[in-house]
Amino acid sequence: MLFGRNKKNPVKMVDKGIQKWTYATCGYCSVGCAIEVGTNAEGKVVGSRGVAGADVNRGKLCIKGIFEHELFESEGRGDNPLVRESIHQGYRETDWDTAAAKVKNEIRRIQETHGRDSFAIVSTGQLLTEEFYTLGKLTRGIIGTNNYDGNTTLCMASAVSGYKRSFGSDGPPGCYEDFEHTNCLMAWGSNLPEQHPIIYWRLQEAREKRDFPLIVVDPRVTMLAQKADIHLAITPGTDVVLQNALMHVILKEGLEDRDYIEANTNGFEQLETEVQKYDPTTAAAICGIDEDTIRNVAKIYAKADSAMSIWTMGINQSTHGSDGVVGINNLNLITGNVGKKGGTSLSITGQCNAMGTREWSSCSGLPGYRYLENAEERAEVAKFWNVDPEFFPKKRGLAQTDIFPAIETGEIKGLWLVATNPMTSMADTERTRKILEKLDFLVVQDCFADVETTQYAHLYLPAATWSEKEGVYTNTERRVNVVRKVTEPHGNSKSDLQIFNLIASQFKQSEQMNFPAEPANVFEEMKTLSKGRLVDISGMDHDLIEKSRGIQWPYTEQQADSGETPPPGGKRLYTESGTFRFADGMAKLIPLPFIDNNEVPDEQYPFWLNTGRLVEHFHTRTKTGKIGNTNKYSPIPFMEINPDAAIELGINQGEYVRCVSRRGDAVVMAMLTQRVPRNMVFIPFHFHDCVNRLTLGLLDPHSRQPAFKQSATRIEILEDQEAAAQLSMEMRRF
Amino acid sequence: MFKVRSDEPKYAFLWDKETKSENCHGKPITLTSEGDELHGKSLNINDEAGIGENPNRYKQHGFYLNADNCIGCHACEAACSEKNDNPAHIAFRSVGFVEGGTYPAYQRLNISMACNHCDDPVCLKGCPTRAYTKYAEYGAVLQDPDICFGCGYCTWVCPYNAPQLDPVKGQVTKCNMCVDRLEVGLKPACVSACLGNALDFGVVENVPENREECKTEIPGFPRTDITNPNIRFQQTRQTHREMTRTDSVPLKYHKNEKTGIFKPVVDRKKGAQRKWNCKKLMLTHESAHVAFTLLTQAIVGAFVLLILGDFSGMPALADVKASSNYNILLTIMLVLLTFGLFKLNMHLGKPHRFYRGFYNLRHSPVSREIAGVSLFFTALAGYTLFSWLEIEAMSTLFALLGVVSGPVGVYYMYRLYRIKARPFWDHWQTGSAFLGNAVAIGAILIGLVTASLGQMSDSFLSSMALFVFLGLLIESIGHIFHARDLNTEDGEGAASWYEQTTKFGWPYLISNILLASAILMAGWFIVGPVTLKGWLLLTLVVISAAAIKRSLFFALVIPTTMPGAFFWKNEGFQEHAKETGLAEMQQVGVAYDRHARFKTDELIETIKTTSLKEVIEQLKSIFYWKEIK
Predict the structure, then answer these.
(1) Most buried among A294, A330, B595, B622, using CB within 10 Å?
(2) CA dist., res. A467 & res. A484, Å (int)
């Protein structure tokens, strides 16, 4: 039956009147999707879409990217620098010159009183690479503190550390195209549908074309675990045991790639000796995966023509995060699965420019994967920047997670936080509060004035965000992609590059150095410094990057000059024998003894406390918590708890409960689901004053990354549900 | 025309090469053929005159969901809201889920659902303003918010929760199939955005590449026999025997081992305890409907009793008519009815568009109800006026109009609640309750007003008590059968019954006790002497019982909808957000129900800008509909 109105009215559809699309790269996670931002005739940003011809996302975007254009005008953006003498006072607005002079004066005052390293800088994975590079130059070349690190310590430090220990350098060797070639994919503590939905789509496309086994290691039945052929519901914190057991089986059955091991690795004998201790029967008792499954998985992985492992925070955020990465590398090295199509160790990293900060920020070294410990590399950079090489420290200073305890002990008196929110993101919130309270001077530089750290700041610097500025990001497959400026910075905020340049100009030393104002010129400096390095970007420039929809490094000047167009994707590292970054070109096989130092559940705190990400939120919700069309899917914190455990405790679906750990407590709404085992609860980490009030965050000895995912908690019912609801609301402003 | 990019990816394009001739319900897929009146017309999208070159333009299209593949990433919902510029509290497409199994053999089945552009669009038939059109182009069911007056009836009748009533704008909007994209050969925005390769779109019954099934059912999807929705599914992976909902609706889905089909059964998730929840009951969003339906039924009942009682020469009622208080009684009735109508009208999202309520007399019981009740209101007003003026001929004319239009109005009031997607209402008891209330409360009203205004004969209230008794008896018999039928049913009706005996257990029990007491009292009054005080008490008991029962009627209905998620589309959480004040943050995505403003200026503007010719045409179109086969 059809009904025609007698007179058809015109069909009305929303027309946003987009006149212009501006190219950008998504500023949320590290997948690095190319995105176009639409502006209407008045120049107002009104829409966004995925770039159809970009190899990474091929026109698709995830929920966060689709609404990223609403970011510019979202609540809580900072308009003007804010200043106060003490944190008990209210803020007053000030101008940029006064603010910049204040930063310089306070840094020098603190350094003169307490020593050069008593002022610390904690940066981020959120800035553009040119900004990272400039902050590095300012810090290493002028300010001179060695206590300079990024919040990337909270998310991918273990991957960096593991890559360095195994291959001699950071830099993920694989790429997304590997999905199209691999014959076995093992995902360790990585939940692509929730964390990296576009990469999941690439995987799904590959799996629809060609079936290959997907093995997922995760204590929760995540969406990826549900899609897996084999789900290994591992006991938290025991990945290394599983890895050793897998290698035990591979070596015992003679499934290793002897030729590859000979030609590419050192240390095989030591590894062999260590893994002999981990027969599947012994391992099963520790890691919770039965011995037959261990044997089965080992055989599938080793027998596959090519096999790859991906991992995310399930490995990294652990007391043996770095070891877990080395374990994956070991597994791939003995089976000959590095640097070949579909065979790789691919870390799926977190922030949009976590890679950019690893490459260029000088946080843990000097630009272009250079080491402070290497005199030649110090001299090279010092000469290029026109700085006295002796001004550089001879070895790396404290990591973020060691900077905070150093404030606690009084060694550090001043702190500059750039686009990071430790009040929500670091373990043990109450301790973090006490630490921030102790500072003589805290400057917070962020695109949001309502970021929780401003509660303890003396000075707030409003920064521009994402495509209010121009520059590049590097994604998880080493692809450099560009962000173009689509709109002016909000209010009187400035780009982070402008802020760094302004502050640099306050110091006399800057007169003999060069701080280019234009991002493209900063990029030229980086190009020069990248020549001959692993991270060679000398063939790129902003325009070529946009035209190519992102270019994977290395792409050298020689390649560009010879007219070699950058390939759309599929570039790998270590494709030739013996090209690893240690002096002899060999990778290291490192034995990994297992030490169990986690806070495991006991009678008092009978539940594992697991934390993780939700697709609709990014990090500490300063962005996604204000955009209704992302936030609404989880507007308040909740906790996944097994229904059988909940019934025993008398908890009903949707009730608020109190979680208690040895550090503190948190109020969350209970979601009853069999997704988690009976002795585990899962709480997303995005919410302020929530799960990180509970977490312990023991540090990895190599990477200094906290173990967010392994602590113990108990659950208490709350009689007064109304009061709990009010408390849950009051604990966060958005 | 929508602009296709030069490098538009392949997955964004429609793919139907061949199409079937009939859908699985035996309906032709081609909706109009060359030479037909509806063929070759522009959709006039935003007044653009072009005609799309889509080769399947006149074929019924539909969404396809591979439920095995949906990962619940919200990309479809986001792409839809981005394209349609929807605020957080409105979504044309939503993803909910059901889950089953025990750790680690746990399974979550996500279901992404928008409008199914049904073969038999009940929204279109139900809409009193004719805001809906089913187009020959793609078979799209489109709704025009500029016509809608925000009554929300389409949201009641749709089994899939597709039309979205926006309490802020006071209007309904819904999925528009992205017809602008279809015109240029592109799939809808949600489908192009899908990251699990779960959603697809094409001519209905066509199976996308690499897919094998074309089912009409998956666990959690509401029944399809009401509207023949144009959605097809694949779901080949084994599901658990029982799939539960995470939202507050007390339903789960149980597999029939023989057929493999899931059907909804009650999930007693809130225990068996009898509760009060008085505040929730009395403050339902539908309290305007409680007042309107009860008042209208009572006044119609009273009017018919008065007129027919007098006509048939029933002494008690003839006495009333003859008494000096008759006109006061009529005036009170008129005031009460006016109040009821006012409450109803102000309940609309756009009350100043009230006059559009008649537009769909052809199909909508709502239009017919509004027409009936409006005529009755006219009749009562006229009758009252001429009774005061003592112009017999005129008052007889209006009396005649009233005794016809009143019952017609109440009949369609009953018909409009017989909604298949709302099994709790879809029972003859709805009719018996309306009839019983009309008779009982009508008689109560006559008795109360007349007796309190002056001396009546001893037998007067006893005669009225007979009507009260009969009315309440009719109502009670209905309730008994309703309870019996709900108890033996599965699904949403049984879930309503579960809530009636638990969530609202005490009010329900009390209303039954009140009703039983009222019957006993009325019975006693028929035979024994009645005092005014006694009558007052009866009035109180009857009105209390009716108010509680009618509030329960609205509060208990559980529609056949899609399962929600834990926060989004979870009625329990929405309620919680409103109670606690979370809803005050726009980004929580829950909007408060608001009282709409009567925009007199908009009404005057409409009157000014509408020519007489247009008015006549509009009136004509109420009675003359072109139906195109």
Answers:
(1) A330
(2) 6
Q: Which B residues in the span 129-148 are in contact with A, Cβ-Cβ below 8 Å?
A: 130, 132-136, 142, 144-147
Q: CA of B192: which chain A residue's CA is closest?
A: A60
Show residues of chain A in contact with B246, CB under 8 Å: 653, 671, 673
Look up residue B129 and give its two tokens. 């303003």
**B210: closest CA among B74, B75, B64, B76?**
B64
Suggest the residue from B103, B237, B359 to mutate for an interface test with chain A (most A CBs closer than 10 A).
Answer: B103
CATH fold for domain B10-240: Alpha-Beta Plaits (3.30.70)
Residues 6+ apart with CB under 8 A from B215: B232, B233, B234, B235
User: What pTM, to 2 d.p., does this model score?
Assistant: 0.96
CA-CA distance, B422 to B425, in Å (whole number)? Answer: 6
Indicate the residue of B31, B176, B248 with minimum beta-carbon distance to A13: B176
Q: Given the structure tokens 């590859």, which residue do they identify?
A: A260
Task: Decide: A166 and A329 in contact? Cβ < 8 Å.
Answer: yes
pLDDT for residue A252 is more than 70 = yes
Across the interface, whether the CB atoms of A1 and B119 are under 8 A apart is answered yes
Q: What pLDDT is stored for residue B455 in this prediction?
A: 72
What is the pLDDT at residue B488? Answer: 85
Task: Give the pLDDT mean for A33-41.
Answer: 98
What 3-state class would DSSP assign to A640? strand
Is the sign of the CA dihedral A132, A133, A135, A139 positive or negative?
positive
Taking alpha carbons only, the member of B298, B328, B253, B2 closest to residue A13 is: B2
- Closest-CA distance, A192 to chain B, in angstroms, reads 10
For an interface test with A, the pick among B566, B571, B584, B611 (most A C-beta atoms closer than 10 Å) comes out as B566
pLDDT of residue B629: 43
CATH, residue A521: 3.40.50.740
Phi (first) and psi of residue A500, to 5 degrees: -65, -40
CATH number of B286-555: 1.20.1630.10
What residues of chain A lie within 8 A of the CB of B133, using their CB?
3-5, 8-9
Higher pLDDT, A521 or B617: A521
SS3 A266: strand
Number of folded domains in chain A?
A: 4
Distance from CA of A611 to the nearest CA of B (A): 18
Using a CB-CB cut-off of 8 Å, the residues of chain A touching B197 are 201, 204-205, 208
> B588 vs A193: CB contact, 8 Å cut-off?
no
H/E run at residue B65? strand B61-66
- For A67-84, what is each residue's pLDDT tens digit? 999 999 999 999 999 999
Residue A1 pLDDT class (50, 70, 90 cuts)? very low
Its ipTM equals 0.96
pLDDT at B283: 76
Residues A386 and A531 in one domain: yes
The answer to whether B590 touches B583, Cβ cutoff 8 Å, is yes
Q: How far is B231 from chain A (nearest CA, A)?
A: 17
Domain span at residue A546 reads 82-151+353-482+489-561
The answer to whether residues A359 and A504 belong to one domain is yes
A624: Cβ–Cβ under 8 A, 6 or more apart, which residues?
A: A64, A616, A617, A618, A630, A631, A686
B5 torsion bin: left (phi>0), alpha (psi -120 to 50), beta (else): beta
Contact at CB, B9 and A634, closer than 8 angstroms: no
**Could you state, in chain order, the average pLDDT of each consecutive group of 10 residues for chain B (629 residues)?**
95 96 95 88 93 96 97 98 98 97 97 96 95 94 95 96 96 97 98 98 96 94 93 94 96 93 93 92 86 97 96 90 92 97 94 94 95 97 96 96 98 98 97 98 96 82 96 98 91 95 97 98 93 95 97 95 95 95 96 91 93 88 67
